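Much of what follows relies on a compact textual record of a protein's fold. Think of the row as the fold of the chain written in a discrete alphabet. An example makes this concrete, so a full record is given next.


***
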Amino acid sequence: MKQLLESALLCVCILLCAILPSFAFDNGRITGKVTDQKTGEPLIGVTVLIQGTTQGTVTDVTGNYTLNIAPGTYTLEFKYMGYQTKAVTEVIVKGSNATSLPVIMDEPTSKNLAEVVIKGSFKQETINALYTQQKNNAAVSDGISADVIKKSPDRSTGEVLKRVSGTTIQDNKFVIVRGLSDRYNVALVDNANLPSTEPNRKAFSFDIIPANMIDNIVITKSATPELPGDFAGGVINVQTKEIPEQQFFDISLGTGFNTVSTFQPFKMGYKTSTDILGFDNGARQLPSAFPSTTAIVNNQLSAAQTRAAEKSLNNDYRVRERNGAPAINLQGSWGDHWDTKKHGSLGVIAGVTYSHNETVAKDMIRHYDNFDYTDNVYKYSSNLGAVANVGYTTGKSKLVWRNIYNKIFDDNFLYREGDNIGSSKYINYYAFDLIQKSLFKTSVEGDHQVGQGQSKVNWLLSYNKVTNNQPDQRKVSYGRAIDDASAVMVADIGSVGKANSRLFSDLDENIYIASANYSHPFRFLDNKSLFKAGVLGQYRSRDFHARYIGMKLDPTKDGGDVVAQRPISTLFGDDVIDQDFYDLNDITSTADEYRATTLTTAGYAQLDNRLSDKIRIVWGVRVESYTMKLKSPINNASINLDNNWLDVLPSANITYALNERSNLRGSYYRTVARPELREIAPLAYYDYEMSSLINGNINLKRSQIDNADLRYEIFPAAGEVVSGSVFYKYFNNPIESRVTSSGLSQYDVTPYNYPNAYNVGVEVEVRKKLGFIAPHSFLDNVTFYANVAYIKSVVSDNTTTTAKDRPLSGQSNYVVNTSLGYALPNDKLSFNLLYNRIGQRLYLVGEGGGADGSGRLGNIYESPRNLLDFQANLNVSKRSGFRLNIKDLLNARYQFYYDQNGNNKFDNPVYQKGSINSGEDYLLQQYRPGTSFTLTFTYHLSK
């Protein structure tokens, strides 16, 4: 390990020595993108000239151009056959900084005007380009541009996404769009799917991409044929830079404090020297020579072999305690470019992020059914991320190689105490649970001009690898009689089950993607139109293995009762094992492993027709074939699934331009939502926090969703918007997870298809500078943003004869996102206050509730909570700045409850110790996470 660190340090030193001298570059540059005013499509081959010189260039296959020029003020001319020439004045180049000048071009309105040169200033053209980008979106969408990101103090993609309309990011990985949970949303990075880092949910680690490496982010809320078909809420597409506009090298150092966790008592289990880096050193893994399940179950081990196997496990159950450490956040990013012959350009951009957090969910209340518990959950978390892109463009072609790596290390320790009324015991429960997740994504993408016109071919090849490793999840319970506080606590080691076993699990997933797209402009009704067509193939393979083992106290051995009274630190000591007090048990079943593959093939055809200057229709069809094969166990499978779903997904987006600053949009589209592989696998995983078995369902079908949107939008000024939307969605066979009780304090959570559901909602968005209230005052620098949505959803529930219609699982009935930002004109100082509230939403479907005295479980709801964040940024100089983030200022409580009386609200029942009424609402969990303060210092070596 020491050699590895020394090698890494040497590489960093060599890199610094190589790149630091290059920052003496004196010339500036002008960069930008030239697009068509009506279609928004990039224009290839536009001639860009600097007036009064012979210096010039042409736009590449993506419409981008770059001009190296000495500092000064210039006028640029843009010429292209069939378009009016445009001259942009007052283009100022300062030092070695890049000046960004996006340009829009249009056809002449008459032959007489064909030779007229349209003149405009740099400021006017920049504003016009932003207007055009806003108005020319083909679908109902919202986004944030590179220019806005550049001016913001945001450090990562997760922070940037908080500024995008109608989108909420929970725990920096779960996406909520229009109140719909992560199941119905998709994340793309550079037009390719970003795989989930969770085995049973769509979770995306947005923190790994530094903000200064983002070109733009677009959230699309209605479908077009070129987009993936498996969403209903939104598609988040994060576009990263390949060729930076200018040279940069940025370093950020940060630390954080949480009012509940930092410098407060923090408990944890076994630790290694590499945990802080986000890697287990192997000490927790199941030894490679450990006996097989067959050998253990069939009693093929001798006493000596059993002792050796038991001692080969990591039996260090000591609970360590110290004060929680402050958070650590480190980030470094670098980019450079080199001009080549024939207007070519080569660019490299790379970034590394590291974070470490120690958090506590303190005094979490669990009061439901037979349980009256208090939990304390300690999380020791390290996250390592890296991004590296290489881009090359020359005239008619562009090639980009992109890479992302993310490693997540979450080591959890749970300590539980309280009454289990069903077993008449007071218990202490310990759970040690390390989860290691990793994602590696690499892709190569090409864009090529076809012929001499604007026709293009785009292709993509991508490989993704996802791993999820749980090495030695350990669970131990102690108990005594509820009414005898003086009794000795005795370990529950008389049998081995999933609630007190040791779990070793591994998930390995590989994803291969290939796609090709062709676009060709043409004229229809004497107006510009665009034809697009493409194909996609994605192959995904996953292997999952789980092993459940445990040591059971030998009931025939004298002195066993004394062993069971040992503290957890010595319960499985070598001295006890050497005296043969334990039998080695293996309770792994054939259903605890599976192999699954999916093959997605898709093709689409899309037309972008302008029927007049005011009417535009983007329409077409996407066809997706999805084949899923699953077998369990992997060898000699008893379960073989072979599902194939073919979906024809039409869509149409109509835009009517009411005037230059407003649109009326309408859309219809069909999409799908497919079950996750973990949901359809036949295994049962024990969730020790909920005391539940999480089951799969091999009979799940995909959901089909019909969607309709109507939206009015007006753009009062560049970067401002006021819009109102109405949307409707109809779900056929929606997938919902249901919790049921099987008695003896045992619960099952299983996904099912329900007949149908619908939601209907309204959404209002405002993004406006407040200078109109008092012109030429400080309000000129204040921006107000609000996105408010109200949604009604209803599911047809036929599970019981008494079932009532209820909301869609994961659907909030309202969403409020607002922010108020202030920034000085020179960006020296800025403040941002963000408020978010998500309405009550159904977490798990219940059995109908226990108001009738039946004891059935009610629906589990997540209560609304108010989230208020504050951000301040101070640029001390051109090179350095400080950023303060305060998260969850109100420290609102998290609350999940069983709605036992069926009135869809939490009634705050008065609980009595030792008595739980099934007709009163239960508390699944309730706690306050604390307020977090983060201070970050950023230094720009390149300025």
Q: What stands out?
A: The longest helix spans residues 2-19. The first strand starts at residue 28 and ends at 36. The chain is about 10% helix and 55% strand. The chain has a mean pLDDT of 86.
